[in-house]
Specification:
Two copies of one chain form a homodimer. The first copy, chain A, is of the alpha/beta class. Chain A has helices spanning about 15-30, 45-50, 60-65, 85-90, 90-95, 160-180, 195-210, 220-230, 240-255, 295-310, 310-330, 345-355, and strands at about 1-10, 35-40, 70-75, 100-110, 125-130, 140-145, 155-160, 185-190, 215-220, 235-240, 265, 275-280. At the A-B interface, helix 4, strand 6, strand 7, helix 7 and helix 8 of A face helix 4, strand 6, strand 7, helix 7 and helix 8 of B. Bound molecules: 3-isopropylmalic acid (2 copies). One 3-isopropylmalic acid sits at the interface of chains B and A. Chains A, B: Its EC number is 1.1.1.83.
């Protein structure tokens, strides 16, 4: 059986880390006898926007919908296209139209990667953020009144649905159930955001009834971010709304020092549409073009993609390979962000060789 | 001239730290010859709710509006009253009705307080979060449809006004102007929350024109929380919406290890209504009743209150006093959270004695 993979590098360092992501992916495919058909797309990039006046061709949905997965770099080049246009015209469309309602992001202290937190070592921090990925605070409903005057009012709605919330909670509970600690933390802000958030808390309670073995706690987002810094060892699976999940899944990797290397999976658990795998780092205009971006986020995303496609062993081999290369700590291989003076390519090649 | 101070201890450790806050306040008043008239109120507490079925008496506005300042402990006792009821029925009313549109919170590494971040020492981290405090994500507009069914939809609106945003930006720019580094960071999420947030960015640009000496940068909230952990030394004054400011002003103190001792000022800069001063920590049901809560948040809030009332010297004397007591590190004086085995009262008395 052949897996059809749509490859979309995007902008900035997306274009630089993608070749290394593919190198690792193909190495793992060779070793485990996995048949991949890669198809490359230049849309969903600001270059494409410059040429066509839009981020995607009109038939993008048709072009992508039969892929088994989308392997995605990073989108955004604010110098030429404002972020809300480039992102709402690409990534956020994919998440929504392909109903990738789970955004799954591991936060893990890795060997050889320095954490900004004092006194933490590999094993101490190892949790997942499960983020609702299609609705909530990322709505397209709202607008302005009395525009341009002193009376100007700007309104944006947060929209949550029972369908949307229950299904991501179910995913999070299912995941917590498979983990040794069986612990689920829900992030809300029910004291301040007093309509949507207390209702989310109720949905968590209702879902929890079906998972008697999972222990559940709840924090307001403000103190939860504080606890990510003070007690990252408390967490196992953290479930959150679109915005809160966005915040926590940058903050978590920041606490482990892995924000430059963290992966993410935008999953359509029903399998109706392709899921999308991308590094958490964005297009990073500040370091783009220098060939020094760390490719591990892209490579780790390849591992998550292979696991999603049913190849646990191949995914694990990729993770083992980059953990080994990081542990060795050869400065001629590693990129500057992890203490070396190598390049995107030296690090990518070393990992692929190890696979 | 006599300053009329309304004293509201609230719930939980609010009731325990308030006496020490008052001890410090009165010591500073004596030393600097400041005339205070304290008036005590038992409302805005869950005990009051239990007795009266509401958090506040009907005439609370009349009772408080002529105070020169409100000295506030902490509200909330979720075991008996859900947080969204106790908070919307008290603190959030005060902020709104008294138009305390600035919430000002210092994040500062203190001598003798252990930071969870590696390799940071006093002086490295010293910034303010300026939070919009009356509108934005903390709206009371929204509701449910198809309630209790599978089609359930829950909507809550974020409401921003030009008046509301411009005035807090002005406050933040003015503050940045007085600081040696003259740096202002604005927190938004314009790529995801694409109606309100890009508009906030525009208002920052428009206001910046009047402050050519202030250098301005902008981060999306996700990467900003990451940078609080990775590069807290980057920040000087950070301005944010109600929700983002709430998050950043818990996360900032968490990074400095001071979440248990951070103060905050809810300011009505126009002076039309009383401003309110409170510790950032809440009512902390988990340690309430044991007499071990750290009173420095309350004491530091007293310092901010005195400064607001025009007594810079008295405010500074309080800050100097608790910094000195922390530096000394006497374990018989300090509370457990800062490494001692003293009590709320031993620490409060030591600080008052020093003033
Ligand atoms: C108690 C709660 C409503 C409040 C807020 O979110 O504003 C608190 O977290 C704060 O920061 O003062
Ligand atoms: C680029 C942006 C729209 C996106 C998001 O907020 O979802 C990114 O931050 C992410 O976390 O994938």
């Amino acid at each position: 059986m052949t897996h059809r993979i749509a490859v979309i590098p995007g902008d900035g360092i997306g274009k630089e880390v993608m070749p290394e992501g593919l190198r690792a992916l193909e190495a793992a495919a060779r070793r485990f006898g996995i048949d991949l058909a890669l198809e490359h797309f230049d849309f969903a990039s600001c270059d494409y926007y410059a040429a066509h006046g839009q981020m995607l061709p009109d038939d993008w949905f048709e072009q992508l919908k039969d892929a088994d997965a989308i392997f995605y770099g990073a989108v955004g080049w604010p110098e030429t296209v404002p972020d809300h246009i480039s992102l709402w015209g690409s990534l956020l469309q994919f998440r929504r139209r392909f109903d990738q309602y789970v955004n799954l992001r591991p936060c893990k202290l890795l060997p050889g990667v320095k954490s900004p937190l004092a006194d933490r070592k590999p094993g101490d921090i190892d949790f997942y953020v499960v983020r609702e990925n299609t609705e909530g605070e990322y709505s397209s409903v709202g607008g302005k009144m009395f525009e341009g005057t002193d009376r100007e009012v700007v309104i944006q709605e947060t929209v949550m649905t029972r369908t949307g919330v229950d299904r991501v909670l179910k995913y999070a509970f299912d995941l917590a159930q498979t983990r040794p600690r069986r612990k689920l933390t829900s992030a809300t802000k029910s004291n301040g955001i007093a309509i949507t958030m207390p209702w989310w808390d109720e949905r968590v309670k209702a879902m929890g009834v079906h998972y008697p073995e999972v222990s559940v706690d709840q924090f307001h987002i403000d103190i939860l971010t504080a606890n990510f810094v003070m007690h990252p060892d408390w967490f196992d699976v953290v479930v959150a709304s679109n915005l809160f999940g966005d915040i926590l899944s940058d903050l978590g990797p920041a606490c482990t020092g892995t924000i430059g290397v963290a992966p993410s999976a935008n999953i359509n658990p029903d399998g109706t549409f392709p899921s999308l795998f991308e590094p958490v780092h964005g297009s990073a205009p500040d370091i783009a073009g220098r060939g020094i971006a760390n490719p591990i986020g892209q490579i780790w995303s390849a591992a998550m993609m292979l696991e999603h496609l049913g190849h646990q062993d191949a995914g694990q081999a990729i993770v083992d390979a980059f953990e080994a290369v990081l542990s060795e700590g050869d400065p001629t291989v590693l990129t500057p962000d992890v203490g070396g003076h190598g390049t995107t390519e030296t690090l990518g090649r070393a990992i692929a060789a190890r696979i």
